[in-house]
Automatic annotation (TrEMBL):
Its EC number is 2.7.4.8. Its main location: cytoplasm. One of its GO terms (molecular function) is GMP kinase activity. Belongs to the guanylate kinase family. This is Guanylate kinase. SMART domains: GuKc. PANTHER family: GUANYLATE KINASE, GUANYLATE KINASE-RELATED. The keyword Kinase applies. Essential for recycling GMP and indirectly, cGMP. It catalyses: GMP + ATP = GDP + ADP. Residues 116-295 form the Guanylate kinase-like domain. ATP binds at G123, P124, T125, A126, V127, G128, K129, G130. The keyword Flavoprotein does not apply.
């Protein structure tokens, strides 16, 4: 066998390159620490099709500890919670880790700076969640109302992309796989509903408040993932009025109505898990109360 010599190593050049790379990383960290650049921006630069080298080779730990007021102990704990090894570099993260880290960093950087808020509106079936949300959609265009994806077929008058994204079961599976949902659930034992993550992240990081109208399981899930979200429970003026609304809507047969009323009892029992309760006596008043909750006082 002829001997194959390894290619000559230019040690001096290699060490010059290493020094330059270290300097570039230090520059990124300094920009984040002095708030000249946001950590989200660094992540996005690292994860483009042609990643910026310094950003991608930065360790996650280094990036987190550059964020003002985030110390090494907290950073280590956050990485543990997100399932990211302490030695990981930003460019070496898997898709799910990327989504989770970005979400954390967005929320962290928004703290005390951006006056935006995520509000979750939930409540028992037929209390008027859809009606109040529709009123907000029509009368408060500045509010971003999240549009869910669902496997249920559209009802007459419902518009794809406005009321829901109507998708097939296969498409819904693909969205779950791709980590595209902030939460999803099977509702009323029937169809699947999910909250798409990206529009919410974009809105919150640009300082816009977002309203989610989802079921109780969804509200609990969002609260677990984003404890800073404000949970609002919509209540009927009385139990009798709730029954009247459910029957009056006429969209369910009597067996389904009875089943939903049973569920409604369990849902009403969960109202104390919520931060705020709004009674839906009059649609426009309830809508105004919800919209008011979306505005975060400047002192927060
Ligand atoms: N978890 C979850 N629930 C949702 C989502 N979108 C809508 N829902 C809930 O799904 C339920 C059914 O909604 P819909 O099909 O419009 O019929 P409704 O029961 O007549 O209002 C309502 O309780 C909604 O709050 C979502 O993205 N996630
Ligand atoms: N404040 C209100 N006063 C009277 N009827 C209402 C009010 N809010 C909603 N409704 C009616 O109650 C029924 C259930 O409302 P809906 O928005 O479909 O409930 P949900 O989305 O919570 O299941 C609908 O027929 C709606 O028109």
């Amino acid at each position: 066998m002829p001997r194959v010599d390894p290619p000559p190593v230019d040690r001096a050049a290699a060490s010059r390159a290493a020094i330059a790379a270290r300097r570039a990383r230090a520059e990124v960290k300094r920009a984040v620490a002095t708030r000249q650049r946001s950590a989200v921006d660094v992540l996005d630069a690292a994860w483009t099709a042609e990643p910026a080298l310094a950003e991608a080779s930065l360790r996650v730990r280094e990036l987190l500890t550059s964020i003002p007021t985030l110390g090494p102990t907290r950073a280590a704990r956050v990485m543990e919670q997100l399932g990211i090894a302490q030695s990981k570099r930003v460019g070496g993260l898997g898709p799910r880790q990327r989504v989770k880290l970005r979400e954390y960093v967005v929320a962290r950087e928004a703290r005390g700076k951006v006056q935006s808020r995520l509000v979750v509106l939930a409540g028992p079936t037929a209390v008027g969640k859809g009606t109040v949300s529709q009123y907000i959609r029509q009368n408060y265009p500045e509010v971003l109302l999240s549009v869910s994806a669902t496997t249920r077929p559209p009802r007459p008058g419902e518009v794809h992309g406005e009321h829901y994204f109507f998708v097939s079961d296969e498409e819904f599976d693909r969205m779950i796989e791709g980590g595209e949902f902030l939460e999803w659930a099977v509702v009323h034992n029937a169809f699947r509903y999910g909250t798409p993550r990206p529009p919410i992240q974009e809105a919150l990081s640009s300082g816009k408040s977002v309203l989610l109208e989802i079921d109780l399981q969804g509200a609990r899930n969002v609260s677990r993932q984003m404890p800073e979200a404000l949970l609002v429970f919509l209540l009927p003026p009385t139990w009798e009025e709730l029954v009247r609304r459910l029957i009056g809507r006429g969209t369910e047969d009597s067996i389904e109505q009875a089943r939903r009323l049973e569920t409604a009892k369990a849902e009403l029992a969960a109202q104390d898990e919520f931060d705020v309760k709004v009674v839906n006596t009059d649609v426009s008043t309830a809508a105004a109360e919800v919209v008011e909750l979306l505005a975060v006082p400047a002192s927060r």
